[in-house]
Amino acid sequence: MKQVRLRLEAELELLEATLWYENEREGLGFEFDEEVHAALGRVASVPRQFPVITRDISRAIVDRFPYGIFFVEFDDVISRSRQLQLRYRARVDTTAENPRCFCRS
Fold first, then answer.
1. Whether the Cβ atoms of residue 26 and residue 46 lie closer than 8 Å to each other
2. Residue numbers of the domain that contains 64
């Protein structure tokens, strides 16, 4: 099992989304957080089961919520580059050293 390393940007996005869901309904933020971590566990276990979206960036879908986890697999670690609400179309910039997603509705 590989280690999943979260970039600061991804951690902040997770916290923001968790708080938003918790404000919608008590306990929903906790449920969202659990589903995200379950998806991260699947990524750590078998990262190649997820489709490659562009070049070396893959995407795992979060169960029950409209979110995807975009990640890059390295030899010894998986870097979660972004979490993205899937109701938006995303363009991934892979020209930068650290890939970024640009969202538009």
1. no
2. 3-104
3-state DSSP assignment of residue 49: helix
Q: Which two tokens stand for residue 58?
A: 């893959």
Separation of CA 23 from chain center: 21
CA distance 10 to 99: 12
Instruction: Tell me the H-state helices in 1-95.
Output: 8-24, 28-45
In the predicted model, what is the mean pLDDT of residues 1-23?
87
Distance, in Å, from the CA atom of 38 to the CA atom of 32, rounded to the nearest integer, reads 10
Average pLDDT over residues 42-63: 91
Q: How many domains does the chain fold into?
A: 1
- 49 pLDDT tier (thresholds 50, 70, 90): very high
CATH code at position 12:
3.30.2310.20
Task: Average the pLDDT over 6-29 and give the result.
Answer: 90
Per-chain mean pLDDT for the chain: 78
SS3 label, residue 4: strand
